[in-house]
Amino acid sequence: KVYALGQYIAMSADKARRVIDQIRGRSYEETLMILELMPYRACYPLLKLVYSAAANASYNLGSKETDLVISKAEVNEGISLKKLKPRARGRSYPIKRP
């Protein structure tokens, strides 16, 4: 069992889940094909994570990349970037950016 963890990726969790649901339970090679062909912005950070997990498996366990399977993949909400938007009459409204 090998894992790779991606933290502080500035992206909506819903948009990343849309891609994660497609690769969960698939083989390593099939996952690479899917991530390279999907048109979403979430694919690039996830592709880097899959490469990292494969490198961890080959280095730590000595397993072949053709035998790997994505058994578990999950996305959780992270921290939000909080900014203020100036409004009329000296007021300001908060902006929360994922």
UniProtKB/TrEMBL annotation:
<dbReference type="GO" id="GO:0015934">
    <property type="term" value="C:large ribosomal subunit"/>
</dbReference>
<protein>
    <recommendedName>
        <fullName>50S ribosomal protein L22, chloroplastic</fullName>
    </recommendedName>
</protein>
<dbReference type="GO" id="GO:0006412">
    <property type="term" value="P:translation"/>
</dbReference>
<keyword id="KW-0150">Chloroplast</keyword>
<keyword id="KW-0694">RNA-binding</keyword>
<keyword id="KW-0687">Ribonucleoprotein</keyword>
<keyword id="KW-0689">Ribosomal protein</keyword>
<keyword id="KW-0699">rRNA-binding</keyword>
<dbReference type="InterPro" id="IPR047867">
    <property type="entry name" value="Ribosomal_uL22_bac/org-type"/>
</dbReference>
<dbReference type="InterPro" id="IPR036394">
    <property type="entry name" value="Ribosomal_uL22_sf"/>
</dbReference>
<dbReference type="GO" id="GO:0003735">
    <property type="term" value="F:structural constituent of ribosome"/>
</dbReference>
<comment type="subunit">
    <text>Part of the 50S ribosomal subunit.</text>
</comment>
<dbReference type="GO" id="GO:0019843">
    <property type="term" value="F:rRNA binding"/>
</dbReference>
<comment type="similarity">
    <text>Belongs to the universal ribosomal protein uL22 family.</text>
</comment>
<dbReference type="InterPro" id="IPR001063">
    <property type="entry name" value="Ribosomal_uL22"/>
</dbReference>
<dbReference type="InterPro" id="IPR005727">
    <property type="entry name" value="Ribosomal_uL22_bac/chlpt-type"/>
</dbReference>
<comment type="function">
    <text>The globular domain of the protein is located near the polypeptide exit tunnel on the outside of the subunit, while an extended beta-hairpin is found that lines the wall of the exit tunnel in the center of the 70S ribosome.</text>
</comment>
<comment type="function">
    <text>This protein binds specifically to 23S rRNA.</text>
</comment>
<dbReference type="Pfam" id="PF00237">
    <property type="entry name" value="Ribosomal_L22"/>
</dbReference>
<keyword id="KW-0934">Plastid</keyword>
<dbReference type="GO" id="GO:0009507">
    <property type="term" value="C:chloroplast"/>
</dbReference>
